[in-house]
Amino acid sequence: MSAPLRIGELARATGVDVETIRYYEKAGLLPPPARQSNGYRAYTSAHLERLSFIRHGRALDISLADIQRLLEFVNS
Fold it and tell me: What is the rounded CA–CA span in Å between residue 20 and residue 59?
């Protein structure tokens, strides 16, 4: 596995604003990341993939509720 990403790195890699990433975490669309010993969020490649999926869904004008349903279906 590659080194964990910080939230700013994840934002740059996906083109999603940092505040939007935090919102997706609070809304349950993005699982909370582990915390490093310094308190920084440590995002993985799984977070990158899921956030990219959410971003593409939003680009297709799919609602967050429908994206949540799709994610639940995929994870069941």
Answer: 14
CA distance 10 to 57: 17
Region for 15 from its dihedrals, namely left if φ exceeds 0, alpha if ψ lies in -120 to 50, beta otherwise: left
pTM to 2 decimal places = 0.88
pLDDT, one tens digit per residue, over 24-71 is 999 999 999 999 999 999 999 999 999 999 999 999 999 999 999 999
The 3-class SS string of 28-45 reads CCCCCCEECCCCCEEECH
* Contacts of the segment 30-38: beta carbons below 8 A, 24+ positions apart: 30/54, 33/4, 34/4, 36/4
